[in-house]
What we know:
single chain; alpha+beta; Helicase, Ruva Protein, domain 3; 2 domains; four-stranded antiparallel β-sheet; 7 helices; 23% helix; DNA-binding
Amino acid sequence: MPELPEVETVRRGLEPAMVGARFSSVEQNRPDLRFPLPERFVERLQGRRIVAFGRRAKYLLADLDDGNVLVMHLGMSGSFRIERSAGAGTPGHFHHPRSSALAHDHIVFNMSNGVRILYNDPRRFGFMLVVPRAELDTHPLFAGMGIEPLGNELDGAVVARLFAGKSAPLKAALLDQRLIAGLGNIYVCEALHRAGLSPRRAAGTLARRNGAPSERAQRLAEVIPQVLNEAVAAGGSTLRDHRQTDGTLGYFQHRFHVYDREGEPCQRPGCRGTIRRIVQSGRSTFFCSVCQK
DNA sequence: AAGCGAACCTGGCTGC
DNA sequence: TGCAGCCAGGTTCGCT
């Protein structure tokens, strides 16, 4: 489900409910998600206060007051929803209603501010772990992680360097989280269309030319943050499960130019092409072979 | 070594 | 209506 814009949407929804609050109680309804949950997961969270709530690529990071970080990944079908109890605002009288439990509500955080935060994940490709903040950067999950596409690091020169010498298709290189971390199938397809680049082109063909990053690399570096920022502003894309934490839908899917639009006319002004679907490394790619070269 | 396909899971949709 | 088959926003593993 969630690529960077969806995860950022979730982060923004959860932040005000989480930062400053403590975990009053945590319900763990099964031993594992994608991986076994950490030893004593519930005990390690209960009583802790959340001091910051951030994101790195597609990971949510809740900094706890004991120096640990609760790391959460939503996999393909993970989502959070927030329920506010009637007692919110009057400390000591929350009732955290249990009546609303749905199938696949695997983890529930009952917060000291009266908010109930439920993690639902039918496919269980998501996972949670607890890592000391000081060890986060060297943790296997994060050590080899690529650059943050909404940070300041992304520009044509960086793209050229990252892709230099790669024979893999651009599509695969953009999905490789060790290069740029946070893009997924939707936004890779959309970015490539905006940049006018074929998903089948070898990534290495964007490398530097005569000491300067190629025009193509610069265009790609420009459109990636553009499409991600527009998607964040739209609350992400709702294909099936993604919701903002208050239940409202994302609406960026209405602005897709290629994703899931096989057979439709290309929307690029003046282009007479038709959106095609091909399969690359086992995943659907949508693109216009007329204007994407 | 890089790159590709399969695997991990459940559910929704399509077509027979 | 029923059921088989296919597909899905991610990541990792293992083979070539």
